[in-house]
Amino acid sequence: MAFDVRQIAKKGLLRRGAFSWQWSNNYGEKIGSVGVRVAGDPERVILAYQWTPYNGEPRHVECSLWIAHSPCNYGGSRPWFLCPSCGRRCALVYYGAPGGRYACRRCVRVTYLSQCDDEMARLWRRQRKLERKLAEGADEWNGWERPKGMHQKTFDRLRNQIWELEMRRDEVFETQAASLLGRLGVLI
């Protein structure tokens, strides 16, 4: 569960006091909550919650997150959490550090979903991105019609890029299929 200093600041909650924060899943069911106390002159946020270690008894945990500010170009400042584990500046802290604590994505070892993609998934993602450009807000690109207002040269370039991605995807599939069949002992 991620805790975002930007959301707290946007809602005007970075001032002395207390509030609760909760997370819900895609179905609107509550999956977690934390009590939040802003201490001092909004330089520290204290998260209070219950943590149950594997095969252990529930424990009450308080995690202090210090806040640093960086100046913005046109005035004001931007708040950042300082990671309790490494001291790095970050906008999000994640639950999962040792001892049931919050820390930055590096300390908790959270990866972006795209970092787990194989070559085939990256090719699909690039193709969907190009198709969204050609669909111009429609749900799906029909593949034949040039969007209104798009230069023919741009349309041809994007369509050729999609064609090259499809060809590369076929090559990757052949390589992966041959590798799998080889491991299974099937001769082709």
Q: How is this structure best summarized?
A:
The chain is an alpha+beta fold and 188 residues long.
Shape summary: extended
Largest sheet: 6 strands, antiparallel
Parts with pLDDT < 50 across at least 5 consecutive residues? none
What is the percent of helical residues? Answer: 25-40%
Output the structural class. alpha+beta
Radius of gyration: 24 Å
Query: Biggest sheet, strands in spatial order?
Result: 2-3-4-5-6-7
Give the N-to-C terminal Cα separation: 48 Å
Mean pLDDT: 85
Q: Helical region count?
A: 4
Strand content: 25-35%
Order of helices and strands: EHEEEEEEEEHHH
Please report the total strand number as a whole number.
9
Structural summary, described in words:
- It contains four helices and nine strands.
- The chain is α+β, with helices and mostly antiparallel strands.
- It has a six-stranded antiparallel β-sheet with strand order 2-3-4-5-6-7.
- A hairpin with a 5-residue loop joins strand 2 and strand 3.
- Helix 3 packs antiparallel against helix 4 (152-184).
- It is extended and about 65 Å long.
- It starts with a strand and ends with a helix.
- The model has no long low-confidence stretch (mean pLDDT 85).
Structure characteristics:
188 residues, 4 helices, alpha+beta, three-stranded antiparallel β-sheet, six-stranded antiparallel β-sheet, single chain
Helix-strand layout with pairing:
Layout: E1 2-4, H1 5-10, E2 17-24, E3 30-39, E4 44-51, E5 59-71, E6 77-82, E7 89-90, E8 92-97, E9 101-103, H2 105-108, H3 119-135, H4 152-184
Antiparallel strand pairs: 1-8, 2-3, 3-4, 4-5, 5-6, 6-7, 8-9
